[in-house]
Amino acid sequence: MKLSHIDKGNDFDFGRTSCEYAKYRDIYPKSMYDKLISFGIGRPGQKILDLGSGTAVLPVNLYHTKANFTATDISENQVRFGKRVAAKKGIDNICFRVCSAEKTGFDDNSFDVVTAAQCFQYFDAEKAAAEIYRILKPQGLFCKIFMDWLPLEDEVIAETEALVLKYNPVWSGSSFEKFRYTYPGWAEHRFSVETIHSYNAALEFSAEAWLGRIKSCRGVGASLSAERLSEFESEYRGVLKKYSEPLSLKHQIHIEIYRSDKT
Description:
The chain is of the alpha/beta class. The protein is built from eight helices and seven strands; from the N terminus they run H-H-E-H-E-H-E-E-H-E-H-E-H-H-E.
């Protein structure tokens, strides 16, 4: 994938990280899922489409709500690993499809809820919003989720970013500051704001789990050559030895929920 506004247009492919993604990216805290449920995302019988689902982290963690999930991703490898994760956990109520967020192939008015966790920035926002609006039922919900670490508040994360930039200087995922919300242009004439909620959480990782999470990062495993990735891993293992475990790392979680204006 190439996007002019990300990593100076350099190639990245999360499908290359699917093994690490499946093993190490199930990191959203329980508090986030509890909040989603309280906001009406995940109810018995609800038809939910998860766009950019990767290895189906969100559907796997909300399957117990008895909602009916469909997980989609543009990467065949991500979908393949998502199916493996679901099967390993004995989950059989998730359907999978390889497709883009901008052209899903689903019928009009197919879903009660559409979710997009940690992926909307990779979509063509206007085209994806039009597609989400089309496939949502009248008054359906679109839930956009983003979680990022806070390098200005956490020494480990700051050092992590410095090393990623050493190996991949064009990576544009660094220096995240706390989110400041503005109503997005893609929502105009389609969606009304239902809920905007941000909060901080300290997430705990072993050094090995954190390394795996970083290897699945866009600027690392999705971009670096195998040789450079090996060099990065070797150097980062040395860096992590300085810190005691578990690592308690500062993150911000941001949830936006919009209601379709369709009647």
